[in-house]
Specification:
The protein is built from 16 helices and 14 strands. Strand 12, helix 15 (385-388) and strand 13 (402-405) form a beta-alpha-beta unit. It has 427 residues and is an alpha/beta fold. The longest helix has 32 residues, at 195-226. The strands form 3 sheets. It has a 6-stranded parallel beta sheet with strand order 3-2-1-4-5-6, sandwiched between helices. It has a 6-stranded parallel beta sheet with strand order 11-10-9-12-13-14. The site of uridine-5'-diphosphate-glucuronic acid has 19 residues, from helix 9.
Length: 427
């Protein structure tokens, strides 16, 4: 088949690369000429493990092509994926302007019986609105469907090649058949449903995972009041098959480009349909306050931040990405600076220019050794292996030093044996 993927964020580029590797001709389309010209040279404009290699390989086969031309790409395509950003509008709802712009640009070029697939995360009911935009400009009969994605940043290529399920949302059986055929090489269970259910599935999956994390964070806070260890509690409750012990490790709250946005959007959607009094409307609030709640308790523990030197290790929102959107570092560093601390940052991947922090008391260091020099407090914010496997006994100094491991990655007794004061989360 010939496909187009509109949007060159990590979902768009991975989707294009993976389908090209299955033998399809794939156009990666974006209106951003700079990004397209980089991609044409095999340079992915952000860091995502294995993606560079995938793109380079598929460019060589000539099946993968990057273009800014809607007419070249769409007029050839059997399936057109819309995979553009849906930032939150000020009221918290998804802003669909990029989805609508893509729909209007692709419409005049659609060939007969082409399928337009919305891959961007959008609220239920969006397909009808997109259809109206396309109907006004399309010359041929086409179909519309929804295929949400469930890949994670940092393991996007692997997740896309090995999905645990494929959700296809469409009204017509012929569309489900074509999309099933397209997704057959993934060898994953295919779950077909209405477009509205597919969109609710995507929001519900992310909101459920965010709720799970929020729940365990609150349990962790309770553990700190009574001497329990939340990591033991996770094992204990995880023994129940209905609950499981995966994917609920506590920390400073969930971040990234998806959970914070998607939970807020589903909450805004719930308010817009008269269901304001529900759980979703509280989750974001808990998550946002959490980091300050913990920072206040650390402040008391160390006797104030003023005049302290603090090392902040891990600036991205999670390991294996350079993405700092809603990363804990973006809240922690400004807070510490406001309270009078001097801060040294370190991250294996995030470039110094990425952090919009203009304060002489903040310096990003090239190594962990440099970042922890003179530190009164060392914060492990992200479980990058370079950080969690670092031997902090080598850098221990002759003064009282706190090691705060907000991802509970280090063994408590090891940190204490090294001579640090230890603090984890919920233990
Ligand atoms: C998330 C979902 O996991 C994907 O399934 C989904 O496709 C994606 O959003 C999306 O909508 O595009 P991602 O944001 O890349 O993926 O990252 P996750 O690995 O899920 O982590 C999200 C946040 O939750 C991070 O801040 C992470 O530190 C936090 N988290 C995760 C925890 O605090 N505890 C955990 O046990 C797991």
């Amino acid at each position: 088949m010939t496909l187009t993927v509109i949007g060159t964020g990590f979902v768009g580029v991975v989707t294009a690369g993976v389908f090209a590797s299955f033998g399809h001709t794939v156009y990666g389309l974006d209106v951003d000429e700079k990004k397209i010209s980089k991609l044409q040279k095999g340079k992915v404009p952000f860091f995502e493990p294995k993606l560079d290699d995938l793109v380079k390989e598929q460019l060589k086969t000539k099946r993968l092509r990057f273009t800014t031309s809607y007419s070249d790409a769409i007029s050839d395509s059997d399936v057109v994926f819309i995979s553009v950003g849906t930032p939150s509008a000020p009221d918290g709802q998804a802003d669909l302007k990029f989805v609508f712009a893509a729909a209007e640009s692709l419409a005049p070029h659609l060939k007969e019986h082409a399928i337009v697939v919305i891959k961007s995360t959008v609220p239920p009911g969006t397909n009808g609105k997109v259809k109206q935009k396309i109907d006004a400009l399309a010359k041929e009969k086409y179909y519309i469907a929804s295929v949400p994605e469930f890949l994670r940043e940092g393991s996007a290529v692997e997740d896309t090649f090995n999905p645990d399920r494929i959700v296809l949302g469409a009204k017509e059986q012929r569309v489900i058949s074509t999309l099933s055929e397209l997704h057959a090489p993934f060898h994953a269970p295919i779950i077909s449903m209405s477009p509205e259910s597919a969109q609710m599935t995507k929001y519900s999956a992310n909101s459920f995972l965010a709720t799970r994390i929020t729940f365990i964070n609150q349990i962790a806070d309770l553990c700190e009041k009574n001497g329990a260890d939340v990591m033991e509690v996770i094992k204990g409750i995880g023994g129940d098959d209905r609950i499981g012990s995966h994917y609920w490790y506590p920390g400073l709250g969930y971040g990234g480009s998806c959970f914070p946005k998607d939970v807020k959007e589903l909450a805004a959607y719930s308010r817009s349909v008269g269901e304001a009094n529900n759980l979703l409307n509280k989750i974001s609030e808990f998550n946002e306050h959490r980091v300050y709640h913990l920072l206040d308790s650390y402040e008391q523990m160390i006797g104030g931040w003023d005049g302290k030197t603090v090392a902040v290790l891990g600036l991205s929102f999670k390991p294996n990405t350079d993405d700092t959107r809603e990363a804990p570092s973006m809240k922690v560093i400004p807070h510490l600076l406001n309270k009078g601390a001097t801060v040294n940052g370190f991250d294996p991947m995030v470039a110094a220019e990425q952090l919009p922090i203009e304060d002489k008391r903040y310096v990003q260091r090239a190594t962990i050794e440099e970042a922890v020099k003179d530190a009164d407090v060392i914060f492990i914010l992200v479980e990058w292996p370079q950080i969690t496997q670092f031997d902090f006994s080598k850098t221990r100094e002759n003064k009282k030093q706190w090691l705060i491991d907000v991802r509970n990655q280090l063994a408590v007794h090891t940190v204490k044996d090294w001579g640090y004061e230890y603090r984890g989360v919920g233990r």
